[in-house]
């Protein structure tokens, strides 16, 4: 294992952000070895005094979440109102490589310190701007919070989450901020990769609205346009879902007909099985739910999990900040470490490398601890862009051009990782077989009697644009030999099978490295390559259950509900981060590595606040419907009128984060007597009277159309959002202006809107072309002939059903 360097140790990152997204982005970079300089005003970053549970943070001390996110960083105090200090900041920027920026920072409003101005003054810099809607477009300066963005994205309705007789529920834990931070880190590392060749900086414009679309919804616009119906139009509680066992909460999920049949046998009711009508499963499950819940209540969490696992039914204890660190699997794998400054528990790295060890976190800095040292450096700094000698290569080349990726992934998590690579220039070869295609080809509701039905999945189409398809039956000796020859030509291999699949055919990392010594192999097991849950079925919702994402989602008087979304794409972007760090290592050393990027470790990292709060203060964060820790009031309120399905089910999201926003909301409401109470002028007072505020705001909203509410509140800078049906995303003017959806023509499906990436580089989205997802085996001849096979060889392989272009179950 290499210990002579850290992959990112040549980079200096200046953090000009405020909030979780920027802090998590720069934490990822610091954990990879970058020198991260946190620029703070004299009063310090607001996170220093923050506790989601309301724990008291003494003056001069730091909150636990800040201490977790700021590990290994430096702190430099700069007064944004002092011109001499701003000159110091410019000196720090001159010797940096990256700036991470958000508009909430006090520095954002200073002339010369917007993202475009910084890049203009320091053209060598990669400037990563994290904003609610993006830097451009008609909504670029509209008021928003993570909660209202969930509404605009369609993520609150999501994949039909929640009971139809209650208000929809957002995904708790400010997950949109954490996910945006991970994506911002990926965009930053991608831009640094191109800068290494061209010596030119970049401006990354990340839209949190667009990241939430990628993380909380499942290509709903593509589905609507190709199938002429929404993917899911009604909310429901999945059965069994989260249930009460005799000693705690447990989640049991059925995602396939076979899993439902197995559950029926498990609970002693095989007569519930109707193999001739699998579409009746949902109706049957709703009817028999009380009996299933009774069966679960009679058993402990461990008993339910053990028996469900024996039947290969997805399951997990429902984790929260109090119990997750003690779960045997996390304990055996060392998933949690001690904070070096204060000793509370926090998650370890979301990925593990075989060739080198990522550093353990160092202490978080005290406020201004490194100011003097950086002032001295700044006074001596030269012009970095001049020192580097200008451009060395083609700045117009896509970042991953020349990289060949073997994509042995399926469903959502793995393909979402390789999709980014494909969109940005890599040659991504998606490996399937005619008997075991990517499972998303089946998620379309297309009758098998239709011609080429497997080519008509909007989900497969959305996740696999710009890729190539090769089919190889790797269960055969011939197929395995072909696979080995293909691996020799690849720079990267990404797979998300259960661990035993590749192990059984001799394709573990050591075997792959013998074929291609410098290969980077990214393995994405659900629960890791070791530990007691190694072979547990790992659908997205199980990962959400096991990490705490489920615990914070739902109404407080009911069992939590699974987000049913973020577990997969969150795993995908963290696997991408691990790969990008590994590529930096290989660029420096020529050495490949195994990247173990388990879904659970990725999820534990974005739910860190629960563990941090409980272990530092003894406070258990829990779900609170649509309220949240940063805004008061924050909630969903029902608007007048019916939705597109004729239901009385139109909602708006409102979140007041500042006292000024409260005054604006109060004015928009007509300054009624109840709202003039002086106690409501503070966040604490509003939180104490949240029920009263909700009652009156709900009455006001109920008389108005949702568009009218948005217009009235946005006009006075109050964060507000319509709870969109996700399939209506393409109608949003902001997304239209930014070109987030591309029109893609498919030879079987025709033309439809496809989402691109939730960020742009300096050249914008016109920098890359979006090509249709491949037909099954479409590139067999191209790829296999490149391995030296003749036309006759390829024809023989097709005759022997080693390869093919037609499904053969």
Task: Give a structural overview.
With 809 residues, this protein is of the alpha/beta class. Among the domains are: 12-149 and 168-215 and 368-394, Crotonobetainyl-coa:carnitine coa-transferase, domain 1 (Rossmann fold), CATH 3.40.50; 254-313, no CATH class; 632-718, 2-Layer Sandwich (formyl-coa transferase, domain 3), CATH 3.30.1540.10. It is built from 30 helices and 24 strands. The strands form six sheets. It has a seven-stranded mixed β-sheet with strand order 3-2-1-4-5-6-24, with helices on both faces. Helix 1 (20-31) links the parallel strand 1 and strand 2 (35-40). Helix 21 (567-589) crosses helix 22. The model has no long low-confidence stretch (mean pLDDT 95).
List the helices and strands and how they pair.
Layout: E1 12-16, H1 20-31, E2 35-40, H2 64-69, E3 74-77, H3 83-94, E4 98-102, H4 115-121, E5 126-131, H5 146-153, H6 175-198, E6 202-207, H7 208-216, H8 220-227, E7 241-245, E8 248-252, H9 257-266, H10 281-297, H11 301-310, E9 315-317, H12 328-333, E10 336-338, E11 345-347, E12 352-353, H13 371-380, H14 384-387, E13 404-408, H15 413-423, E14 427-432, H16 458-463, E15 468-471, H17 477-487, E16 492-495, H18 499-504, H19 509-515, E17 520-523, H20 540-547, H21 567-589, E18 593-596, H22 599-606, H23 608-617, E19 634-638, E20 651-655, H24 659-668, H25 683-688, H26 690-702, H27 706-714, E21 720-722, H28 733-738, E22 741-746, E23 750-755, E24 759-760, H29 780-785, H30 791-799
Parallel strand pairs: 1-2, 1-4, 2-3, 4-5, 5-6, 13-14, 13-16, 14-15, 16-17, 17-18
Antiparallel strand pairs: 6-24, 7-8, 8-9, 10-11, 12-18, 19-20, 20-21, 22-23
Helix pairs in contact: 1-6, 3-13, 5-7, 6-7, 6-21, 15-21, 20-22, 21-22
């Amino acid at each position: 294992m290499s210990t002579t360097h850290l992959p990112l140790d040549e980079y200096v990152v200046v953090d000009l952000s405020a909030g979780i997204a920027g802090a998590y982005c720069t934490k990822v970079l610091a954990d990879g070895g970058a020198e991260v300089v946190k620029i703070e005003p004299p009063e310090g970053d607001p996170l220093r005094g923050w506790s989601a549970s309301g724990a008291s943070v003494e003056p001069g001390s730091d909150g636990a979440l800040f201490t977790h996110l700021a590990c290994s960083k430096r702190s430099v105090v700069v007064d944004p109102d002092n011109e001499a200090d701003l000159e110091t900041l410019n000196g720090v920027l001159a010797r940096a490589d990256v700036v991470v920026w958000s508009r909430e920072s006090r520095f954002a409003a200073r002339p010369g310190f917007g993202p475009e101005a910084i890049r203009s003054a320091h053209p060598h810099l990669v400037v990563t701007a994290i904003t609610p809607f993006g830097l451009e477009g008609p909504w670029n300066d509209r008021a928003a919070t993570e909660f209202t963005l969930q509404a605009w994205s369609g993520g609150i309705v999501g994949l039909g989450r929640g009971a139809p007789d209650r208000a929809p529920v957002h995904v708790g834990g400010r997950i949109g901020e954490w996910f945006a931070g991970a994506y911002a880190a990926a965009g930053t590392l991608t831009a640094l990769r191109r800068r290494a060749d061209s010596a030119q900086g970049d401006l990354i414009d990340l839209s949190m609205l667009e990241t939430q679309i990628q993380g909380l919804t499942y290509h709903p616009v593509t589905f609507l346009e190709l199938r002429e119906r929404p993917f899911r139009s009604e909310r429901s509680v999945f059965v069994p879902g989260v249930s009460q066992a005799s000693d705690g909460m447990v989640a049991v999920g059925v995602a396939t007909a076979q899993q439902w049949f197995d559950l029926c046998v498990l609970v002693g009711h095989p007569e519930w099985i109707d193999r001739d009508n699998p579409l009746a499963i949902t109706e049957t499950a709703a009817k028999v739910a009380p009996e299933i819940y009774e069966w679960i209540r009679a058993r402990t969490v461990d008993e339910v999990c053990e028996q469900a696992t024996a039947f290969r039914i997805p399951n997990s204890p429902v984790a929260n900040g109090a119990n997750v660190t003690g779960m045997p699997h996390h304990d055996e794998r060392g998933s949690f470490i001690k904070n070096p400054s204060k000793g509370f528990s926090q998650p370890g790295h979301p990925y593990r490398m075989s060739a080198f060890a990522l550093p353990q976190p160092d202490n978080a800095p005290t406020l201004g601890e490194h100011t003097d040292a950086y002032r001295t450096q700044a006074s001596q700094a030269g012009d970095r862009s001049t020192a580097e000698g200008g451009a060395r290569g083609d700045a117009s080349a896509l970042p991953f051009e020349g990289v060949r990726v073997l994509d042995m992934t399926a469903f959502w998590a793995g393909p979402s990782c390789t999709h980014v690579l494909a969109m940005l220039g890599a040659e991504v070869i998606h490996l399937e077989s005619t008997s075991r295609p990517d499972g998303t080809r089946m998620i379309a509701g297309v009758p098998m009697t239709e011609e080429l039905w497997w080519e008509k999945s909007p989900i497969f189409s959305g996740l696999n644009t710009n890729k190539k398809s090769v089919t190889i039956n790797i269960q055969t000796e011939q197929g395995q030999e072909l696979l080995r020859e293909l691996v020799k030509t690849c720079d990267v291999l990404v797979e998300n099978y259960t661990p035993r699949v590749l192990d059984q055919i001799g394709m573990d990392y050591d075997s792959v490295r013998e074929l291609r010594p410098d290969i980077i192999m990214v393995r994405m097991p659900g629960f890791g390559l070791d530990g007691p849950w190694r072979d547990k079925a790992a659908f997205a919702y199980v990962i959400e259950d096991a990490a705490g994402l489920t615990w914070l989602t739902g109404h407080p008087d009911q069992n939590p509900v699974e987000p049913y979304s973020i577990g997969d794409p969150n795993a995908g972007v963290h696997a991408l981060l691990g790969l990008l760090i590994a590529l930096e290592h290989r660029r420096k050393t020529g050495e490949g590595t195994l990247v173990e990027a388990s879904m659970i470790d990725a999820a534990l990292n974005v739910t860190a606040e629960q563990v941090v709060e409980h272990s530092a203060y003894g406070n258990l964060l829990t779900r609170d419907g649509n309220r949240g820790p940063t805004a008061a009031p924050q909630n969903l309120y029902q608007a007048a009128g019916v939705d597109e399905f004729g239901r009385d089910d139109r909602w708006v999201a409102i979140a007041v984060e500042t006292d000024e926003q409260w005054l604006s909301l109060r004015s928009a409401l007509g300054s009624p007597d109840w709202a003039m109470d002086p106690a409501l002028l503070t966040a604490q007072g509003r939180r104490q009277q949240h029920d009263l505020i909700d009652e009156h705001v709900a009455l006001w909203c109920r008389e108005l159309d949702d568009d009218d509410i948005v217009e009235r509140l946005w006009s006075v800078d109050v964060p507000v959002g319509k709870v969109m049906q996700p399939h209506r995303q393409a109608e949003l003017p902001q997304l239209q202006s930014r070109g987030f959806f591309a029109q893609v023509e498919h030879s079987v499906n025709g033309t439809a809107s496809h989402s691109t990436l939730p960020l742009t580089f300096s050249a914008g989205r016109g920098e890359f072309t979006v090509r249709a997802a491949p037909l099954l085996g479409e590139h067999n001849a191209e790829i296999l002939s490149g391995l030296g096979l003749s036309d006759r060889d390829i024809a023989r392989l097709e005759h022997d059903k080693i390869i093919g272009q037609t499904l053969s179950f």
